[in-house]
From TrEMBL:
Lineage: Eukaryota, Metazoa, Chordata, Craniata, Vertebrata
Protein origin, superkingdom: Eukaryota
UniProt domain MATH: residue ranges: 15-145
GO BP field: proteasome-mediated ubiquitin-dependent protein catabolic process; protein polyubiquitination; regulation of proteolysis
Keywords for this protein: Nucleus, Ubl conjugation pathway
Protein name from the UniProt record: Speckle-type BTB/POZ protein family member 3
Record GO cellular component, one term: nucleus
């Protein structure tokens, strides 16, 4: 149903990023420094709200003693509470962001209140990669703060039907070509099921399809491609993304895994990133080991690290799953890598490693 009127509400959000470098960081370990607090900082446009960062090199409590804890604190404000989201990350020796973690929700901050991540990164992992994460014995930590500000309403009025966003129109039009097999010029046979498609669109979106069609042109082959290593349902979802950029059925772990493999095979980087994000957000005790295998197979380091962190948190129950026991037999190198990565979970994983000897 088309709208006949309009109204607009603007919620102001002011975001800024603070970079903090701590020198001689290795000297702060082993209980020498319980916590380190940064100088106060504020948004350039206003000094009415002042913040600081706080790091606990040896964790902020018994539960987090094997981790580095990081917090954002509100030092001063004229009106409270202050509503904000926050994100922390480390800048590595190559200048790239590493171990980015953000708050899922907007939180209220009262004066002198701190919020953050008490298990931000394992200390053993941090110090096992000093050249990458602690170049010249310096820890460089960044925090992005997004403050929710004033709310403005614009009164509505009667309007004529709105024109669609041109980008959405293009996606819908291309989707119609795909769904209705209009003006197709090639046939893709997937496990015996036929799909009609357009060479130009496939070649523009996938370097693998481009190379495939160039080879066909050189060899004067037919406009038919046989694909036997993909499930038709997964292939159809991948083709929908190629034409429209949409993934309406990315709702299960198995579909995300299969689409990730397909994206890697056909050079679809955008699809690969979306699947990686879906797998990361939906890690569970049952699928953590399988996700670790998948990330290792397709060389996705960030997803692999997140799977390892998840296993660290739930080591005692993950090590009892059938997926973990299967991984012990099929991918023993990952079990060994997990063991060396997870200092706090050593007591849970050691029996599993002994079975490999």
């Amino acid at each position: 149903m088309e709208a006949t009127g309009w109204g607009y509400t603007h919620i102001r959000v002011d975001s800024f990023c603070h970079k903090w470098t701590i020198s001689h960081f290795s000297f702060c370990m082993d209980g020498i420094r319980e916590k380190i607090i940064s100088a106060k900082f504020s948004l350039e446009a206003s000094d009415k709200v002042e913040w600081c960062l706080r790091v606990h090199p040896n964790g902020s409590d018994e539960e987090s003693r094997n981790y580095l804890s990081v917090y954002l604190g509100l030092l001063h404000c004229q009106k409270s509470p202050v509503w904000a989201k926050y994100e922390f990350w480390i800048i590595n020796s190559q200048g790239k962001n590493y171990q980015s973690r953000s708050s899922i929700n907007v939180f209220s901050f009262q004066k002198n209140q701190y919020r953050g991540f008490k298990r931000f990164i394992l200390r053993d992992f941090l110090f096992s990669n000093p050249q990458r994460l602690l170049a010249e014995d310096q820890l460089t930590l960044c925090c992005k703060v997004s403050i929710v500000g004033a709310l403005f309403n614009t009164p509505g009025e009667n309007i004529t039907p709105a024109i669609k966003d041109p980008k959405h129109m293009m996606a819908d039009d291309l989707g119609e070509l795909w769904e209705n097999s209009l003006f197709t010029d090639c046939c893709l046979l997937v496990a015996g099921q036929e799909f009609r498609a357009h060479k130009a669109i496939l070649a523009a979106r996938s370097p693998v399809f481009r190379a495939m069609f160039e080879h066909q042109l050189e060899k004067r082959l037919t406009n038919r491609v046989d694909i036997n290593d993909l499930d038709p349902k997964v292939f159809k979802e991948m083709m929908g993304f190629i034409y429209t950029g949409k993934l309406p059925n990315l709702h299960s772990h198995s579909m995300a895994c299969d689409l990730l493999a397909a994206a890697d095979r056909y050079g679809l980087e955008g699809l690969k990133v979306i699947c990686e994000d879906a797998l990361s957000r939906n890690l569970s005790v049952e699928n953590a080991a399988h996700t670790l295998i998948l990330a290792d197979l397709h060389n996705i380091q960030q997803l692999k690290n997140e799977a390892l962190y998840f296993i660290a948190f739930y080591a005692s129950v993950v090590s009892e799953t059938s997926e973990w026991k299967s991984m012990m037999e099929s991918h023993p190198h990952l079990v060994a890598e997990t063991f060396h990565f997870l200092g706090p979970a050593q007591c849970f994983l050691e029996p599993s490693l002994k079975q490999l000897k």
